Amino acid sequence: MQKLNATNDKYLAQQKAQGNAATQLAAAKASGNTEDIEYWTKQYEEITKAVEKSHDEMLASWEEVLQAASDQFDLSIEITIQKLKDSISAYGLDGLADRYEKAKVESEQYLSQLDKEYELNKLLRQIEGSIDDTDNLNAKRELIKLLDKVNEKTAEGVKLSQYDLEYMQAEYELEMAKLALEEARNAKTTVRLQRGDDGNYSYVYTADQDAIDDAQQNYEDKLYDIRKLSEDHIAEMSDLIIQNEQEMMEALAGIDKNRADYVEEVNRITTYYLNRDMYLRQEMDKAVTNSGKVYSDTIFGQLEDAGSLEAGHTKLETKVKETTTTMVTDWNTWKTKTEAAMKEVGSSSETFTQDIESDMGEIKTATTTLATDINT
Could you tell me the CA-to-CA distances from 72 to 1, 8, 51, 198, 203 in Å, in that order? Predict the structure, then answer.
């Protein structure tokens, strides 16, 4: 700003000197004094060159001020919009969106009470109907066991994931396929001519081999489906565990050091991602158990090599705690040094924004004044 004022003053002074030289030159020409004419002609030319140079310098200074004003305006708008975002909620707009997204993810980990009741009641009716329809005592016993298992899940407060539901549905379908296979084997629906031990031929009822083959294939399909369900769930949870850990690292690294609630934000982020890690590992553990495998049989288990899914979570939790403790210590050191530097120059992080807005006002006033001077 001082540079602009200085170049402007210089330009105006030289314009005045140029006008004076022009007056003197005109007077010399009027008197016909050759010596004076030569002198003032030379003076006028030199001053004119100086005026042109100072004019260019003044314009360059003005452009610098205009650019600074533009930059300050952009920063001012950014600060103003950020203030608006911060006023949306106690967490600010960005914080609200982030918390909403995380709460949404957590709520979708398990079925809602409405969905849970609807799906389980539907499954219960199917199982109860099958128990009533069959005379096979072994099948009745297995279906009653499944009925008890489903009833346990209906209790208030018992959480049910989509995998839990699909696995119980698959268990029911597998049991019904097994029952259908037994009934096909025991059914005597086909009449065939057979020779008896006495050498005589007679017509007898036998099982329909085609029906048995169809039932066998159906049973094997259901057996494959239930195993594939767990295998897919293991793979999905493995992917999500790794993705969750990556997102946690990125979220921690992305915390703005200038926010006053830095420590609280560190704790919020780690709590969310560690809780999600525990959920994902519990889901994976159920699928591993249902598939008849153990942790070390899975690709994820072999690579993580923590001994178990629970041990893997404990290890992660410990490492995260060590990391965040270091982060908070480093942040406190940075804050102390920054505040000391601000104090040294008579400012602070709280008054920084006010200083920018004040500078913006000064630049705007000076630019308006200079434009008026040039136009006149």
Answer: 14, 22, 31, 111, 102
Tell me the two tokens of residue 297. Answer: 């049989």
Residue 324 and residue 265 in contact, taking contact as beta carbons nearer than 8 Å: no
Looking up tokens 């208030």 gives 156
Residue with tokens 């969905």: 115
Q: Which of 115, 110, 172, 180 is nearest to 147 (CA)?
A: 172
Q: Give CA separation, 240 vs 125, 213, 232, in Å.
A: 34, 40, 12
Which residues are paired to 192 by β-bridges?
204
CA 366 to chain centre: 45
pLDDT in tens, 241-289: 999 999 999 999 999 988 889 999 999 999 999 999 999 999 999 999 9
Can you give the residue ranges of every domain in the chain? 2-88+346-375, 92-110+161-344
CA gap 233, 317 in Å, rounded = 23
For the full predicted model, state whether its pTM sits above 0.70.
no
> Any idea of the CA torsion for 160, 165, 168, 170, to the nearest 10 degrees?
-160
User: pLDDT by residue (tens digit) across 161-220?
Assistant: 999 999 999 999 999 999 999 888 887 655 455 666 766 666 555 567 788 889 999 999
**CB-based contacts of 371, cutoff 8 Å, min separation 6:** none
Q: Is the dihedral of CA 349, 350, 353, 354 positive or negative?
A: negative
DSSP 8-class letter at 296: G
